[in-house]
Amino acid sequence: MPIGKRELGRIERRVVSTLTDACETAKFEIQGFTWLTHTADSNAFAETLTVTWVFETLADKKLAQANSKARVFELTTIALHEAKLDVKASDRTIRFDSEEECQRSHGGDWQKRIVQSLVAKGC
């Protein structure tokens, strides 16, 4: 049974709040990290949730994937748990991206880039 608009709004507010906390923590801990965002289909929120972690440069992104991936997964897991979502952080739910790559391939248009990545993912 799909969840109602009111409950979806509550979930969304909890996710935004807890991911904001994760974001602020990561800014101090992970080199080159700048911000994060999330997307989900409202008809299947938990099943389609994707959290995108954005780094300043491609080099920063690669460094984070090599050295800080476990911490990114941990921060995401904590945030989703605190938001009362039963979603496991995984390569399916977490994306690494960079401002540099978005600028180069989408002229800095993050909305277009995220939509395109969701289409490529099959969502």
Description:
The chain is an alpha+beta fold and 123 residues long. It is 59% helix and 15% strand. Strands 1-2-3 form a 3-stranded mixed sheet. It starts with a helix and ends with a helix. 22% of the residues are buried.
Number of helices: 6
Numbering strands along the chain, what is their spatial order in the largest sheet?
1-2-3
Structural class: alpha+beta
Helix-strand pattern: HEHEHHEHH
**Low-pLDDT windows of residues:** none
- According to CATH, the fold-level topology is GMP Synthetase, Chain A, domain 3
| Helix content estimate | 55-70%
Alpha carbon gyration radius: 14 Å
* Average residue pLDDT: 92
Global geometry = globular
Compute the number of strand runs. Answer: 3
In the CATH hierarchy, the architecture is 2-Layer Sandwich
Topology (elements, then pairings):
Elements: H1 5-29, E1 33-39, H2 45-48, E2 50-55, H3 58-67, H4 69-82, E3 94-98, H5 99-106, H6 110-121
Parallel strand pairs: 2-3
Antiparallel strand pairs: 1-2
Helix pairs in contact: 1-4
Protein name: Fis family transcriptional regulator
Organism: Pseudomonas hormoni
Defining traits:
6 helices; Fis family transcriptional regulator; single chain; three-stranded mixed sheet; 123 residues; GMP Synthetase, Chain A, domain 3; alpha+beta; globular
